[in-house]
């Protein structure tokens, strides 16, 4: 069973359209045949849709915020970076296969999860806050770190949706075994809890 029945993924996650894209993704999964590994039933869709108001509020905050959208890497971790041998030269990011147009603060979702796990702490930990404010400082043209801080939670809430939009492209020619193997990862991106 191929994923040719899946709708092509949108390369853009413009905040004001995220609730609509989320609902379309749910409908796509519901419309798949019941035996398809990516199928969800109506009850599962209703459970996932229970957070649509939170998504709508987060999308509105990002849309109204001063920080513009940008090309987001979509898979930013140290395995994607080449560090040059010469001192003073910045690292280079590789592999843009998961790149998408989105809010730049959505990149923080993975970084926050990694820091809180590695340091066994909450996001309010001083070390995490230092990293966050150093990141926000790079957007000084759009406001102070204190002014921009309130956009972090909305951006992190919507970040998994970009992963969902990438999965259909990655699984386009996947066989049944790979679909079954990856289905939990695909569907988890729709859980906005």
The CA-CA distance between the termini, in Å, is: 30 Å
The order of strands across the largest sheet is: 1-4
Percent helix, as a range, is 40-55%
Flag low-confidence runs: 1-5
- The strand count comes to 4
Please, what is the oligomeric state? Answer: single chain
Label the overall shape: globular
Counted by DSSP, the helix tally is: 8
Order of helices and strands: HHHEEEEHHHHH
Tell me about the largest β-sheet: 2 strands, antiparallel
Structural class: mainly alpha
From the alpha carbons, calculate the radius of gyration and give it in angstroms: 18 Å
In short:
With 193 residues, the chain is mostly helical. Helix content is 49%, strand content 5%.
Structural account:
With 193 residues, the protein is mainly alpha-helical. The protein is built from eight helices and four strands; from the N terminus they run αααββββααααα. The strands form two sheets. A two-stranded antiparallel ribbon has the order 1-4. Strands 2-3 form a two-stranded antiparallel ribbon. Mean pLDDT is 85; it is low at 1-5.
Topology of this structure?
Blueprint: H1 18-31, H2 42-49, H3 52-64, E1 70-72, E2 81-82, E3 92-93, E4 100-102, H4 108-118, H5 126-137, H6 145-148, H7 152-170, H8 176-188
Helix pairs in contact: 1-2, 3-7
List keywords for this structure.
mainly alpha; two-stranded antiparallel sheet; 193 residues; disordered N terminus; 8 helices
């Amino acid at each position: 069973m191929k994923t040719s029945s899946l709708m092509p993924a949108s390369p853009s996650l413009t905040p004001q359209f995220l609730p609509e894209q989320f609902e379309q993704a749910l409908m796509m999964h519901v419309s798949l045949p019941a035996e398809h590994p990516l199928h969800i039933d109506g009850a599962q869709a209703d459970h996932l849709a229970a957070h649509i108001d939170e998504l709508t509020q987060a999308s509105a905050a990002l849309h109204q915020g001063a920080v513009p959208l940008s090309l987001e890497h979509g898979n930013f971790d140290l395995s994607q970076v080449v560090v040059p041998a010469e001192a003073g030269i910045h690292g280079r990011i590789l592999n843009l296969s998961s790149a998408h147009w989105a809010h730049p603060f959505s990149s923080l979702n993975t970084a926050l999860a990694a820091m809180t796990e590695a340091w066994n702490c909450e996001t309010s930990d001083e070390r995490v806050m230092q990293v966050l404010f150093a990141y926000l400082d790079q957007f000084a043209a759009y406001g102070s770190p204190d002014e921009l801080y309130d956009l972090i939670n909305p951006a992190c809430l919507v970040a998994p949706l970009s992963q969902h939009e990438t999965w259909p492209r990655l699984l386009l020619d996947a066989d049944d075994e790979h679909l079954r193997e990856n289905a939990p990862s695909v569907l988890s991106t729709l859980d906005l809890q």
